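Mods, move this if it's the wrong board.
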Amino acid sequence: MGPLSARLLMQRGRPKSDRLGKIRSLDLSGLKLLSEHLDPKLLSRLTQLQELDLSNNQLETLPANLGLSHLRILRCANNQLGDVTALCQFPQLEELSLEGNPFLTVSDNLKISFLLPKLRKVNGKDASSTSSQVENLNRELTSRVTAHWEKFKAAVSPEEEAEKAQADFVKSAVRDIRYGPESLSEFTQWRVQMISEELVASGGPQVHEADVPERPPKAAAAQKPRARPVAKKRPDDVSLNLSPNKRVCTSSLAPVEGGPPGSDGGQEFFSVAWTALTVVTQAGHKKRWSVLAAAGLRGLVRLLHVRAGFCCGVIRAHKKAIATLCFSPTHETHLFTASYDKRIILWDLGVPNHDYDFQASQLLTLDTTSIPLRLCPVASCPDAYLLAGCEGGCCCWDVRLDQPPRRSLGTRRSPVPPAPVPVRPQLPAEAEGRCRGCAQHTSASGSGSRGAAGQLPLPPRRPCEVEFVFSEDSEAAARRVDGLAFVNEDVVASKGNGLGTICLWSWSQTWGARGKRPTLAVVVLARLQWSPTQLAYFSLSTCPGEGIVLCGDEEGNVWVYDVRHLLMQEAPLPAAPQAPTQILKWPQPWALGQMVTKTMVNTVVANPTFTYLTALTDSNIVAIWKRQ
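Not the wrong board. Structure tokens:
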């Protein structure tokens, strides 16, 4: 397809007219358009255009001056867009479709919400919850930039040139200010730079309450503070005696320039998982390898031999970013990967030989209706069922490999065996270069892969077996579940469906009432009081042997719950949210010459005996506590 012409626009425009200025709806989908084909001079003549469809093309960017100021509906699905900032030229936009753009991330979703204050729907879903999250992030970032300005101004000498000092301030703010989960760092740094530049231009902190874009009435209504449930303190609660040892180190999994050995520059990891593999050496001896699987923005899984310090294999698992991954607790080579392409794939990595060669293969592809955020094999039957917390709720799949799954409308079973995916290694001598297999390994993003011998067979695909409902309220039932873990073989802890609470529910009682229903109300055992923040993606964890539930918050605190006594009580359990057994306050360590007084704890983990507790933060600091 070449450049657009006025004749083509009139042919594909509605209503039919011989004047571009009268066209209100235009369909340019499926024309193989490139970004340079969008001529601003021509398109700016569409002065009354309100609806534009650019889906199924090859657009990498949108020109910044299209002149479509009245546009209300824009469809750009299935393109190659990598940046959304050009959308700010459409201030009246109410509906936007960007599905199928593999380079867009969750940070781009937040940018869209900030840039388009009148947006009501994104990819067919209500945009008000994202608007609420953006406003909360924006307030906190504005506050932090203002505080950083005061510190910076006090340290600047009078002799220093004002223009240079202002430029240095913007650079230092972008470098030093961190807030929110690491997956949102692109958005937060983008906003920090904007806020800093506006603060400098205004000459002072009078913009402290500015920069909160006006929202439509529905989004504003979502901002109303909700009543926080009153927590009931259990009389038998005792302190867990966790004392903060301020041992602080930098996180090795923050976004890095070079990445681990064998990675491409600029790789950003969102999730890691450990396994131990038995390897047979060339001499015939068996050795145990500790292998770290790391995945993130580019949809690749890198298998890292940590002790040897090199990348021993790469799998091109998905076309979009990987949100999370986990190994099977019973099969050391089985790895689940969950992606923004709304698919979960079960892989068998195989066992590497003495030449570090892997032969990975897809065993299953699980379809989701929304982006999966957390994966959790069912504790009592990990080979049979997998739970996933998703943007749209909590779902369950049958992952048994020895029998066919239930049929579902629009789903067919594949009778063929799984498709092998060659994984080329990076040998130790190549550790400083590019992984040898990166450009050569075969794509395996759920639609099969093609080898030298032709088309490889498709792995079986399965739909969601059951969607769990946490409330009779339809809106509450569809909220994201961003925290999910088993407390013991029966009790599940989940977070996200209730503001300021963590839900404990019974797997066996819930599953026992299933029948043939596609949706199932969970049997709630208790609720735990947690932070009332509206920020998402704080990951909870458990220590099953000790009956402990852990979760961080936006203030740097760690919420600790000992639920053993609670779960031993006879039914009915208390209806009021139960208070935490202990809240560990942020220890305020020193880093880079200044005290870190506040941070966001994204992930908290503990060892099986609950002797050590580790908190990972958004300020690139790891805090470690030891129980006395």
